[in-house]
């Protein structure tokens, strides 16, 4: 039942970024470092979706796309380093379903991935629940202690990350990757700032803390100690 995603990307940093983030989202992730490797893996273990870089050593992404498409209807999301419109057109001509221009945020990517998987298998908006906190993926609002609150885009992404991974310590690196993307400069206090915003919204006047600091590591969503 868990969707399987095949990442075909020669650049180690981006390949690992994608694998780490998608694994956190509970997808099963296979990786390939070039087109030949990718086509073999797609044949041996058919994926539910392919993330395909265009600029690959040897066989380029367009050719890989054509060959994948010749063999199956698997959704293909192409990654391009260039803004070039020709890439987009060529990718769609080759049978890709969608494309994403680098640099992209993980959240953007995840939205495209979900949309493509949804097209194959429709699903409804859901409400994440943890303790007495709720997060509605349809309205993108939170609710706690009888109060509904709005969230900015980044607040929503951060809270959704916590809600999808309750009681797991999320390291600062994972949070940066997932909410701000790999191109975001490190060393900033932006996570602290957004955690503070979320605490203000989720704790109201005097509700027990749910987003806890794990000193020197990151944050965790869990019930307060009794
Ligand atoms: Ca590449």
List strands and helices in order, with pairings.
Layout lengths: L3 E5 L3 H13 L3 E5 L2 H10 L4 E5 L7 H11 L4 E5 L4 H9 L4 E4 L4 H15 L6 E4 L2 E4 L5 E3 L2 E3 L3 H12 L5 E2 H9 L9 H14 L7 E4 L3 E4 L5
Parallel strand pairs: 1-2, 1-3, 3-4, 4-5
Antiparallel strand pairs: 6-7, 7-8, 8-9, 10-12, 11-12
Helix pairs in contact: 2-3, 6-7, 6-8
This protein binds calcium ion (CA).
Calcium ion binds next to loops.
Task: Write a structural description.
The protein has 226 residues and is an alpha/beta fold. Helices cover 41% and strands 21% of the residues. It contains eight helices and twelve strands. The chain has helices spanning 12-24, 35-44, 61-71, 85-93, 106-120, 153-164, 172-180, 190-203, and strands spanning 4-8, 28-32, 49-53, 76-80, 98-101, 127-130, 133-136, 142-144, 147-149, 170-171, 211-214, 218-221. Strands 2-1-3-4-5 form a five-stranded parallel sheet, sandwiched between helices. Strands 6-7-8-9 form a four-stranded antiparallel sheet, with helices on one face. Helix 3 links the parallel strand 3 (49-53) and strand 4 (76-80). Helix 2 (35-44) runs parallel beside helix 3 (61-71), helix 6 packs across helix 7 (172-180) and helix 6 crosses helix 8 (190-203). The longest helix is centred in the middle third of the chain and has 15 residues, at 106-120. It is elongated and about 60 Å long. The two termini are 37 Å apart. The model has no long low-confidence stretch (mean pLDDT 88).
């Amino acid at each position: 039942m868990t969707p399987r995603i095949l990442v075909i990307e020669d650049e180690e940093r981006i390949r690992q970024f994608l694998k780490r983030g998608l694994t956190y989202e509970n997808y099963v992730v296979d990786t390939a470092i070039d087109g030949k490797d990718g086509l073999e893996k797609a044949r041996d273990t058919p994926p539910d979706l392919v993330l395909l870089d265009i600029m690959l050593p040897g066989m380029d992404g367009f050719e890989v796309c054509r060959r994948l498409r010749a063999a199956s209807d698997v959704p293909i999301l192409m990654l391009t380093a260039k803004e070039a419109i020709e890439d987009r057109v060529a990718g769609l001509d080759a049978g890709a379903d969608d494309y994403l221009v680098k640099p992209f945020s993980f959240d953007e990517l995840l939205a495209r991935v979900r949309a493509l998987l949804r097209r194959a298998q429709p699903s409804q908006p859901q409400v994440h629940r943890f303790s007495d906190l709720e997060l509605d993926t349809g309205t993108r609002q939170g609710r706690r202690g009888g109060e509904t609150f709005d969230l900015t885009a980044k607040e929503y992404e951060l809270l959704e990350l916590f809600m999808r991974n309750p009681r797991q310590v999320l390291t600062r690196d994972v949070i940066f990757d997932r909410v701000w993307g790999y191109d975001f400069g490190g060393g900033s206090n932006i996570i602290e700032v957004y955690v503070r915003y979320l605490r203000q919204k989720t704790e109201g006047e005097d509700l027990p803390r749910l987003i806890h600091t794990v000193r020197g590591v990151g944050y965790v969503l869990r019930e307060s100690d009794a």
